[in-house]
Design brief:
The structure holds 2 protein chains of 2 kinds.
Chain A lengths: L1 H13 L18 E5 L4 H4 L2 H6 L1 H10 L19 E8 L2 E9 L3 H11 L8 E4 L2 E5 L4 E5 L3 E9 L5 H5 L3 H13 L17 H5 L5 E3 L13 E3 L10 H48 L9 H6 L6 E6 H12 L1 H6 L14 E9 L3 E10 L2 H10 L6 H4 L8 E6 L2 H18 L7 H14 L2 H7 L3 E21 L5 E20 L3 H18 L2 E4 L4 E4 L9 E7 L2 E5 L2 H8 L8 H8 L3 E5 L1 H9 L5 H13 E11 L2 E10 L6 H27 L1
Antiparallel strand pairs in A: 1-2, 1-10, 2-3, 3-7, 4-5, 5-6, 6-7, 8-9, 10-11, 11-12, 12-22, 13-14, 13-20, 14-15, 15-19, 16-17, 17-18, 18-19, 20-21, 21-22
Helix pairs in contact in A: 13-15, 15-16, 15-17, 21-22, 22-23
Chain B lengths: L1 H15 L4 E8 L5 E8 L4 H7 L4 E2 L2 E2 L3 H17 L3 E9 L4 E8 L3 H13 L11 E4 L4 E4 L6 H6 L2 H6 L4 E8 L3 E4 L5 E2 L5 E7 H5 L7 E5 L3
Parallel strand pairs in B: 1-9
Antiparallel strand pairs in B: 1-2, 2-6, 3-4, 5-6, 7-8, 8-13, 9-12, 10-13, 11-12
Helix pairs in contact in B: 3-4
Classes of the chains: A alpha+beta, B alpha+beta.
Chain lengths: ~675, ~220
């Protein structure tokens, strides 16, 4: 949480930078994610004084950073007039999240860091060549000189698993042991006194030996086991006691071994992490870096004029994600995932963010330098929305989402991606030739054209309205003598009114699917009827928020809707009077989305019961505008624009975000204070 | 971050806000025997519950199946039935309206205390003070409803989403007697015109936060 808030704070303060001097040459080309908070314009958008005035910054972030509320963000040692960069990189089997900051007052910055990481294990500053170095935790390290600070949060990924070690071959085990010897001796909190396990001879004579148990060996408790010769014969019936005791001792020894082994691994990981952090800091401050700025994909899709930007190496990120997800499985198989550096020219994506006066605009771009892969990807976008689908967007709708993709191209694209991904994965790379044959076979077996005829790739979802519906419920009325009587009452509930449409060229098949439930309706006790041209699944009145779902297949469209009006207009081959702008957006883009936040909030506001929810809803209604997204193929790249408009009294959309966070924070804080007053 | 999470939660809450009522009814004869009924009425939220019951989890809690719920209620019935002195123990669950009831007869009101304790222990409850919920002193003709345990601290630890569940919930206590009611200690108590019954209706949140209490000492007129 602390890290998230610190990250968010850095984001907030970075947004206030001006007169950018780029850190870009210091960001390595191996980075999988690069985030830039450009300095230009931000000091004008949300000045420092304004940032200082927000309650949530004063009372939450400042508290978290151990700064007193009288301090200004100007006085925390970070030079806000310069750019801030953050990036993720994988080096020496460690994933590192690096923050690059410009400093203008080192003592102030150190106060900030020491306050924030007060609870950290290491607080001693070390002098390195050309910079000071502070290990604030086993994963977090800070290096700085007079002008620059680098924060590295790094995690070693190749930690060994104990059971992997335990069941590995002797040679591997010996290697591990010797590796452990060269490292510092593990720190053990308590002195252990454990005699060697009894020999077989001794065990065979145990019926004639009496043992005096010492303290139990468990975790870090002291253990002493003393044996002394028997003075009298022990009856054989007590043998099980010794066996249990012996097994207990062995368990304790095993646990202790495991604990020591894990301590060793943690120490090794810490050493690796520190080495990686030092290397990153040292290279950034004085080394030669092949920068991401030389990467064509970075230049192509990142706009230097954006107020903030994010660049993502999609493939590399997905590999890191899957390595993380499958870590448990790898350990189960007594193996460890290898960190594989991405050497292929996969997809790179970016989001350029602009905080404009009346809206926040996000420009997304996806680019692939590999022309073969790019053409496969671009072919997916070679599709036009069916004009008849656009007629289902009613005027005054709450929102819609339209998608038009080429299903056949999508299947072909996935075959290539699958081959490429499996060939690059550490466990499957050596079987690349088999995978190639297997996927080719898959391609022969699967009929992409058939799938594309069933689902050509044109879809539309429309949220027409959120109507109120009368539902019944059972309650109790009481007479004068408080005898309760069961009564049926009614109340209004929100009922979504929506339509989902999929284009199909296999009407006959879809019709068969739609008819299928008819046969089983009686047996399974649901109300599904053929209504002549469409099917109706009627729900028991008052039991569900919706009364009926209608299914129909007509004129190359498979439709699922709650709206009888939609059924009727389809039967009559007509449509809604969709406005020209919406129609254009749907027909000229592969993806088009629109959400009227105000209408949605208006509808749900009526069903809110608590004051705090109502107040937040009211605030959002007064300040939040519509959300729009469009995406299509432009200049050989998949490009999209998302805008979120704002209303209310804000200088710009960046200020709106701060104002919104502050307002919501104040509403919640006030509510909590009132509740606490009630409780106490 | 909590604030962003709240924003997300806000949209979840509007979908899952629930409303329920618990009714506790005791009919007490002069000899101390009587009848007990507990009703959990979730009918007002039935459209949401019809959807929720099809889900795996909600607010991070596992959603029990109808079979699970039936099994647990049957288990409670068994535990109550095993309590000495309690007879005619019955439970019902109506999944159309989401109403569950438990009824039983008792010879002494303190036998209900034993049943409550047994059920509570079986469910591995950790609260103290569940030993004594009801008491009836025939000599002074006083019926007492205790509330010795506190859930205030546990409530504070709940997530906002879970807290919201109690915001609109109600708790109703109805006590009926053969004798007339002379007085009730809880100020919110309504006494029927015949003076043979009392009713106390409260918001569950007020009870949890101890702003109000279900504790009541009802004095009956001596015969």
């Amino acid at each position: 949480m602390k890290k998230i808030i610190l990250g968010l704070t850095l984001f907030c303060i970075a947004l206030s930078a001006a007169n950018a001097q780029s850190f870009l040459p210091k960001v390595p080309y191996t980075a999988s994610v690069v985030i830039k908070y450009a300095g230009d314009n931000f000091d004008k958008s949300v000045p420092m004084q304004k940032l200082d005035s927000y309650n949530f910054i004063k009372h939450n972030f400042f508290k978290m950073l151990q700064i007193d509320t009288l301090t200004s963000l100007k006085n925390i040692g970070v030079n806000f007039s310069q750019d801030t960069y953050q990036y993720i990189t994988t080096d020496d089997s460690s994933i590192s999240f690096v923050t690059l900051l410009h400093l203008n007052n080192v003592p102030q910055f150190l106060d900030l860091i020491k306050g924030t990481y007060k609870a950290g294990s290491g607080t001693k500053t070390e002098k390195k060549e050309g910079f000071d170095f502070l290990a604030v935790s086993p994963e977090t390290y800070i290096g700085w000189n007079e002008t620059v600070a680098i924060i590295v949060h790094t995690t070693y990924q190749n930690k060994k698993n104990y059971y992997d070690y335990l069941y590995s071959s002797d040679s591997a085990k010996n290697m591990m042991d010797s590796a452990a010897v060269v490292s510092d001796a593990p720190k053990v909190d308590t002195v252990y006194s454990i005699p060697p396990p009894p020999s077989k001879d001794l065990l065979s004579k145990k019926s004639a030996t009496k043992k005096t148990p010492g303290k139990t060996v468990k975790g870090k408790t002291t253990a002493t086991i003393k044996g002394k010769p028997a003075t009298k014969k022990i009856a054989p019936k007590k043998k099980y006691i010794n066996e249990n005791y012996e097994s207990h001792i062995q368990d304790s020894i095993d646990n202790l071994k495991r604990e020591l082994w894990e301590q060793q691994q943690e120490m090794l990981a810490k050493k690796k992490q520190q080495a990686v952090a030092e290397k990153i800091i040292s290279t950034t401050l004085s080394g030669v870096i092949t920068s991401i700025e030389t990467d064509l994909s970075y230049k192509k899709i990142i706009d230097p004029a954006a107020h903030a930007s994010i660049w993502i190496n999609t493939e590399s990120i997905s590999k890191q994600y899957w390595n993380y997800v499958y870590r448990g499985a790898y350990y189960f198989l007594h193996n460890t995932p290898k960190i594989v550096k991405d050497t292929t020219e996969g997809y790179k994506s970016s989001v350029n963010i602009y905080f404009e006066k009346d809206k926040m605009r996000m420009e997304q771009k996806t680019y692939c330098a590999d022309t073969k892969l790019a053409s496969l990807g671009n072919a997916v976008m070679n599709s036009k929305q069916n004009p008849s689908l656009a007629g289902y967007v009613n005027p005054g709708n709450i929102g819609y989402f339209s998608a038009s993709i080429n299903t056949e191209a999508m299947a072909n694209y996935y075959y290539s991606i699958l081959k490429q991904s499996l060939s690059n994965m550490s466990y499957t790379s050596e079987y690349a030739d088999f995978i190639d044959v297997y996927i080719d076979l898959l391609q022969i077996v699967i009929d992409e054209k058939g799938i594309a005829e069933l689902m050509p790739g044109n879809y539309l979802f429309v949220m027409h309205d959120m109507k109120t519906k009368t539902v019944t419920y059972t309650d109790y009325d009481y007479d004068k003598e408080f005898n309760k009587k069961e009564v049926t009452k009614t109340k209004q509930e929100l009922s979504p009114d929506f339509t989902f449409i999929m284009e199909t060229k296999k009407e006959g098949f879809m019709e068969k699917i739609a008819r299928l439930p008819l046969k089983y309706a009686e047996k399974e006790k649901y109300n599904y009827k053929d209504k002549g041209g469409y099917y109706e699944l009627a729900f028991e009145e008052g039991k569900y928020p919706i009364s009926s779902l209608y299914f129909m297949v007509k004129d190359g469209k498979a439709i699922v809707t709650t709206s009888k009006e939609v059924v009727d207009i389809t039967l009559k081959n007509t449509g809604f009077a969709t406005d020209a702008a919406t129609k254009n957006s749907i027909l000229n883009n592969n993806y088009s989305l629109q959400l009227s936040s105000k209408k949605l909030l208006e509808k749900i506001n009526a069903s809110l019961t608590t004051d705090v929810s109502k107040k937040i809803s009211d605030y959002l209604m007064a300040n939040l505008g519509d959300l729009k997204m469009e995406s299509s193929l432009k200049d050989g790249m998949i490009q999209g624009t998302t805008t979120m408009s704002i209303t209310g009294n804000h200088s710009n959309s960046l200020e709106f975000f701060f104002n919104m966070m502050d307002a919501i924070n104040n509403i919640i804080e006030k509510d909590q204070q009132e509740k606490e007053k009630q409780v106490n | 971050m909590r604030r962003f999470a709240y924003l997300l939660l806000f949209f979840c809450l509007i979908l899952f806000q629930s409303c329920f009522e618990i009714i506790e009814q005791v009919f007490l004869k002069n000899d101390g025997s009587g009848n007990f009924q507990l009703v959990l009425n979730l009918s007002k939220s039935k459209t949401k519950l019809n959807s929720i019951i099809k889900m795996e989890t909600i607010n991070g809690h596992e959603v029990p199946s109808k079979a699970d719920i039936k099994y647990r209620i049957a288990d409670i019935e068994k535990t109550v039935a095993k309590t000495p002195g309690l007879t005619n123990v019955k439970t019902t669950v109506d999944f159309d309206n989401f109403i569950a009831t438990l009824t039983c007869n008792f010879y002494k009101v303190t036998q209900l205390n034993a049943a409550i304790k047994n059920v509570y222990e079986k469910e591995n409850g950790k609260l103290k003070g569940v030993e004594k919920t009801y008491d009836y002193d025939a000599a002074t003709q006083t019926f007492t409803r205790y509330n010795k345990f506190s859930v205030k601290d546990d409530y504070k630890k709940l997530s906002n989403a879970d807290k919201e569940i109690f915001a609109t919930a109600n708790y109703t206590s109805i006590y009926k007697f053969e004798s007339s009611v002379a007085a009730a200690s809880n100020k919110g108590t309504q006494i029927s015109p015949s003076k043979k019954a009392t009713m106390l209706q409260q918001n569950a949140l007020d009870l949890i936060t101890e702003k109000k209490t279900v504790e009541n000492k009802i004095t009956l007129t001596k015969q």
